[in-house]
Predict the 3D structure of the following.
Amino acid sequence: GDSIMNRQERRKQEKIPKKENKTLSLEMSIDLLQPWSVPVMRTRLPLYVLDRMLEISEGMISDENSISHGPRLAGQIKTELTIDTELLKKNDLDKFFHAMIKQFVILAKTQKTPYKKEEIQKETWLSQMDSMWVISQKPGEYNPIHFHTECQISAVMYLKLPKFLPSEKKHRAGDDGAITFVSNSSKDKDFSDPTITIRPFVGDFFIFGANQLHSVNPYKCEEGDSERRSVSFNANFMSQTDYYNEQKKKEMEKGYS
């Protein structure tokens, strides 16, 4: 008797929400899993970082003795100059960039292995700035599709943008002067796209895996300052755990001949 009554009561209770509200509000935890692609992290430079990077890059461009970074780069761009990373320390910028590198590592590693999120966040991540350079792009110049070598992470930040002439095609109005990131894996046409093309704003800051294919389109200008100025850098990272293990291995190897 009890079991029949319990079943009847439960059925009655289950029917009540349906009568009172046809649409039930459910709290659900949802994850989109995508371990097969490296994300591109987009953020905005704080104003003090933007101002100081403008000053540093302006000094590089106006200095006739600045070292060209061009021989190491793919860009069909005349003015690409090496920035001494010691300038970052002098301008109190090194901590900011290292924090951003580590933030990207945590986000990308979490996407790669979402069920190790706590382990990834508890780990101490170490970063190393490899090189930095300013790109002073002018109308007609461009950067062909490429990736960066001898590093793990790359980045680009936008300091100055000109007034672009309208693009030739209205349905591709944002192409001129834009940066394009290209996927190495996407084949699904309904829920993914193999490319993303972004016309940046001043202060935009992108961090991505060094093997991420990307390109920069040329543009046209008629009035005002025609310079499209950005700064890029390459970096490396390592977990503190791996760093200590490597050091131990080197110490052990010293005893062998």
Observations:
- The longest strand covers residues 125-137.
